[in-house]
Amino acid sequence: MKTLQFREAICEAMSEEMRTDDSIYLMGEEVAEYNGAYKASKGMLDEFGPERVVDTPISELGFAGIGVGSAMLGNRPIIEFMTFNFSLVGIDQIINNAAKIRQMSGGQFACPIVFRGPTASAGQLAATHSQAFESWYANCPGLKVVVPSNPADAKGLLKSAIRDDDPVIFMESEQMYGDKGEVPEGEYTIPLGVADIKREGSDVTIVSFGKIIKEAYKAAEVLAEDNISCEVIDLRTVRPMDIDAIINSVKKTNRLVILEEAWPFGNVATEIIYHVQDKAFDYLDAPIVKINTADTPAPYSPVLLAEWLPNSDDVIKAVKKVLYKE
Which of 274, 273, 317, 314 is nearest to 293 (CA)? Predict the structure, then answer.
């Protein structure tokens, strides 16, 4: 094992894949000369040159479209959005072309492309730069949606995403790029669509993904001091979703709390709740609780932002609620 920052794990994944396949290239704003807005492509321009690490104008619709077209012609582009908030400018290319071209062409065209960059809040960036887009993109058939929470998962999942023959939305976080973690030495991948039990437990299942899962870890540590055993599941991939992992855990713990950094309406948690009530209703000993951001645009004020975001205290309260220990 070696210790890497999240950004270094992302860089390693892209570089390793580009060394083995000349059809892979990276394109986006500031990915080359500046080494990436968050330094996730540091050194890649020097190694691969400007034809494979390509700086773009501030034109997400344009370079997303270039990526989709080149993927249809046999390349494997990695398109970086400085934030997925900016992907809204190019969302027509993602939804109406990348996601649909295999079906619309009767299988004549594939679109092996990765759209990656940070999602959700990142401190005082206010309403238009703090949105979580996992459920937006997961709503579209033809797209796979990946949201890693640590460096090891980020590297293994990104390598799998780059090798996938369908478009993948790969979501990171500005607040995770400096996170450090152990990453396996040598070649490894993590299959898309497989969740991971980060902490085994017997009293309640907590499901989460992305950077907000760290609040679940904090809560589980505190609750353990009160002899409450939490099983924490990291989805890792939102679509395809590993429903079986969640169902099997709920059958063991009989209680479920879902933590998600997204607005309350129509999110990933509601999809999980549907499947659990459909497949494991008789195993539930308490109503499912989901924890989300407040149902407002993200505030700029740090005081309001702290109230807007879910935290470990919210998780602790939710766990005690489903255990009837309020």
Answer: 314
